[in-house]
Each structure stands twice: as C-alpha cells, then as structure tokens.
Amino acid sequence: MLFAELKRLHSLPFFELLKQARAVHEANWPENDVQLCTLLSIKTGGCSEDCSYCAQSARYNSGVEAERLMSKEAIMERAKAARDTGSTRFCMGAAWRGVRGGTQRFEQVLDIVRDVSTLGMEVCVTLGELGADEAKALKEAGVTAYNHNLDTSPEHYPNIVTTHTYDDRLRTIRHAQDAGMSVCCGGILGLGETTDDRLKMLEVISEFNPQPESVPINSLMPMPGTPLEGKEAVDGFDVARMIAVTRIAVPKAKVRLSAGRTRMSDETQALCYFAGANSIFYGDKLLTAANPAIEKDRTLLAKLGLGTLAPNPGMAAPACEEERPLSPCCG
Ligand code: SAM
Ligand code: DTB
Ligand code: SF4
After folding, report:
1. Domains, the chain, ranges and CATH?
2. Catalytic residue at 91?
3. Residue 287 DSSP symbol
4. Which residue CA neighbors atom 2 of ligand 1 most closely?
5. Taking the complete model, does pTM exceed 0.90, yes or no?
6. Cβ 289 under 6 angstroms from ligand 2
7. Ligand 3 pocket, 18 CB below 6 A?
C-alpha cells in the first residue's frame, strides 16, 4: 500500500480507523485467536553492529555480557518448556551481524533448527544478514519464518544504525523469500521517528511481494547505556493506530504486538487486539528485556475472551502476486 493511502488511513478519526481495521481483521481472521510465541536469545550480546536501541551491541555499556551460543540440549529444554506452556511458535535470536555458510556456528544453528523443528511448533530464527545459500540451508533444516526487521523508514535508518544499510536488510529479506521461508518483518516505534517515518516503513513492508507472513510492531524498550536510553514511552493510542493501519495494509499477516508491553496498560493492549493485533511474545523475557508474566497475559486473554492460535509449522510461505514485481533486493 502506498504512502498516500497509509497517511489517509492514519489521519482518520480514531474510531473510524479502528472500525475499518476491525472489519479487515474479521474478514481475514474470523476465529479471532491470538498466537503465542516464545522468544529465546540463543546467542546474547557482543554484537559488532551499532543499532542504537539495542542492549546487545558491543559498543554500549548496557550491562549485557557477551555469551557463547547456547548448547542444543539447553535450547531444546527451553523449546519443550515453551510448548508445554502453550506457545505455538519458538523464535530464536542471535546477536550477530549475520551468518555465513561453512562456518562452525552456522552448522551448529542448522543442527539446532533440525531438532527444534521436530517439536511441532513453528520455528522462527533471527540471525542477522543471510546470503541466498544460507537462506536455503535454513529452510531445508526446518525454519518456518525468518525475522528481519526494517525497524524504521529508509530515511531515518542511518540515524539509528551506521554499520549496515537499509539495502543490506532488504537483500536478506529477499533471500529469505527466494528460499521459500515466510518472512517476519516489522519495526520499532519510539526511535525519535516522525509519523511519516512509521508510514514509510509500512509502505516498504506492505509493498513486499509476497507480503510478510508476520509483522512485529515493537515499542522501544529503552535499554540503559544505549544512545536511546532516555526516549519517552510511545503513546498507547499511537501504538493502536499503527496496529490498525498495519492490519489494513497487510491483511493476512499476523500482526504481533511485540516489545514494550510491560509499559502498556491492559486497556491499551485490549485496544491493540481490537485494532488487529493477533500475536504476542509470551513469557517474562524478550531477548534481554522484560515482558509480562505468562499468568498476566493468560488473565488478560481470558478477560477478553480471546482464544489462542494453533501451530502451523508446515505452512507454505505467502505466494507472490504475479502482476506485481518481486520485493526489492536493494533500494
Ligand atoms: N541481530 C539480528 C538483527 O538485528 O536482525 C537479530 C536480533 S535483533 C535484537 C531483532 C530485533 O529486535 C531488532 O530488529 C529490533 O526490531 C528488535 N529490538 C532490539 N532491541 C530492541 C529494543 N530495545 N526495543 C524494542 N525492540 C528491540
Ligand atoms: C521482534 O520484532 N522483536 C523481538 C524479536 N523480533 C526478535 C525482539 C525484541 C527485543 C527487545 C529487546 C531485548 O529483549 O533486548
Ligand atoms: Fe546486533 Fe541485531 Fe542488536 Fe543490531 S539489533 S546490535 S544487529 S543484535
């Protein structure tokens, strides 16, 4: 969806926007269920990149220590525990710039994916940059979806990250799509961006061909020691607006109300579910930052009468629309 239309939607009176988003949501997700996803940082800290929101960059004194890649046994234990608490998607994150085929650490990751994918959950990984061959190998090993966020608009991105470019991000997304993985691609609110920046990011994401299978909308968790540590919390109505416009622009995607829920009231979260959010990270830790406790989320979902989505690990990645060009591999 093009910027002008996104802007028109975003400028609607709040209830009118919500009404339209709700109609799109009900047409595409009539069951009204919420997907529960568990995150695990399988390789924490010590990252070479300078993403100014991230506690895992080696450049900032955030208090997050660099750790080695977790053992497969320890990861399997956490994955089974996630399944036992009702998660249907297991997302493994690594604080790397990227991965390269033929390296020991990439072989280890493939081995981990092969085992985790036997558990019946959707398997998502976020490992940084990928080439075409690495993407194919991950798909073959059993990855359902690859998470690679654009985070903000092309224009604002260089103010946030200088060690890699927007085009680098686009290239990885295209490799993941070409390999047949579903793509999970979203961004962060609260990085000092304008509303137009948010909508320009959404323009890029919604114009992907195929559209992403999921779109995480994170609100900045300000991490001590990072350049963005002092940023104010995002207004709850702004989060709901962004969720609503995302629901309309990417109707079939799971729209994930991602980082930042510890700073949101139950009422704001309820508004976001109404506006079209149908997935959350579940469990009291994100990668390094806090997330609401499982019991708290269960209570809220029960209060709202929302069910949970069944896993679909073998789902086919969204298909391309033939009349539109494929997603860009660079700007
Ligand atoms: N290194 C890989 C990469 O950059 O794609 C994977 C891990 S990285 C931590 C995954 C995503 O987490 C980022 O793209 C960003 O959207 C989100 N994220 C990281 N720190 C965050 C924070 N403090 N608040 C909100 N979202 C954050
Ligand atoms: C996404 O969009 N959000 C998740 C997941 N994809 C990898 C990560 C949120 C990280 C929040 C900050 C932290 O835990 O350090
Ligand atoms: Fe590294 Fe990813 Fe954090 Fe950037 S967001 S510093 S690439 S872990």
Report:
1. 3-307 (3.20.20.70)
2. yes
3. S
4. 128
5. yes
6. yes
7. no
